[in-house]
Amino acid sequence: MKVINLSSVRDKVKEVVQEANYELQEDTLKIIKQMQEKEESPAGQEVFNQILQNARIAKDEKLGLCQDTGLAVFFVELGEDVKFQKENGLESLRDAITEGTRLGYGEGFLRKSVVEDPIRRKNTGDNTPAYIHWELVPGDVFKVTFIAKGGGAENMSQVRMFAPAAGQEGIEEFVVEVVEKGGSNPCPPIIVGVGLGGNFEYSALLAKKALLRRPLGSHNPDPFYEDMETRLLERINNLGIGPQGMGGRITALAVQVEAFPCHIASMPAAVNIQCHSHRVISFEM
Ligand code: SF4
């Protein structure tokens, strides 16, 4: 049985929410530079230059990569053989992640982007609650992946329930349609997470999980979905939306698809859009 102190989880969460918001990770920078080489429009080139300059300034001066520092979303893989030591007022793993988020966003001068009620809109003041997805796994694994998810890109995301007759063609049309409809709103060049199968809520979770695949731009191990990712990326980049919607070849940096078994009568599909400010970090303890 592995024992982890809740205060060390809190401190690590506090550290990573700041680091993710200040620094683009290596794989994200790499794909931005690779795609810049393919951009043909001068305006698009300039946007890429500004994205890279912004990333350098944010890292050097420890400033948020974007003013929208996002909802704090966590995916936790929790081993059945891991136990947490309560301490310093932290009673649960949820407490530790919440407190790390509160401290990280507060001390890091990161924008507080959460309202306590969707209609009445009062800011919670500390960017909590954190949005935590739990997955119980065998062994003593404790792995946490954090993504700061801005509102602009999230608002352009969609879930749709298809009948199986829509087929592969219907799904691919849907993905391209969602990106086209989003236009410049999600701050392209974007990353397109696609979740296929499961059910209504599970497809949305799969689409978000698809955004977390590392390195960014790596393919689904199933050649069928690898082909779909390649084809979708090409179709999306032929839309002409371009970086920040200013026209050009590169609307998306990557398309990443995750699939899961589903009901014989349905074919759920979700598209979760992420902007170029792709702030994702994982840690293990
Ligand atoms: S979509 Fe992304 S880059 Fe655009 S404002 Fe939101 S967080 Fe910032």
State the gist of this model:
By secondary structure, the chain is α/β, with parallel strands linked by helices. It has eight helices and ten strands.
Order of helices and strands: EHHHEEHEEHEHEHHEEE
Q: Please tell me how large the radius of gyration is.
A: 19 Å
Query: Structural class per helix/strand content?
Result: alpha/beta
What profile does the largest beta sheet have?
A: 4 strands, mixed
Q: What is the count of β-strands? A: 10
- The stretches of 5 or more residues where confidence is low (pLDDT under 50) are none
Bound molecules: iron/sulfur cluster
Can you give the mean pLDDT?
Answer: 98
Q: How many separate domains? A: 2
- Give the neighbour order of strands across the main sheet: 4-2-5-10
Please give the count of helices: 8
Helix content: 25-40%
Question: Strand portion, in percent?
Answer: 15-25%
What general form does the structure show? globular
Which features would summarize this protein structure in a list?
285 residues, alpha/beta, 4-stranded mixed β-sheet, 2 domains, 10 strands
Overview of the molecule:
With 285 residues, the chain is of the alpha/beta class. It has 2 domains: 2-19 and 65-149, Dihydrodipicolinate Reductase, domain 2 (2-Layer Sandwich), CATH 3.30.360; 152-284, no CATH class. The chain contains 8 helices and 10 strands. The chain has helices spanning 6-22, 26-38, 42-61, 93-107, 151-154, 167-182, 200-210, 223-237, and strands spanning 2-5, 71-79, 82-85, 131-137, 142-149, 158-162, 190-198, 252-262, 267-274, 279-284. Strands 4-2-5-10 form a 4-stranded mixed sheet. Strands 6-9-7-8 form a 4-stranded mixed sheet. The radius of gyration is 19 Å and the shape is globular. It starts with a strand and ends with a strand. The protein binds iron/sulfur cluster.
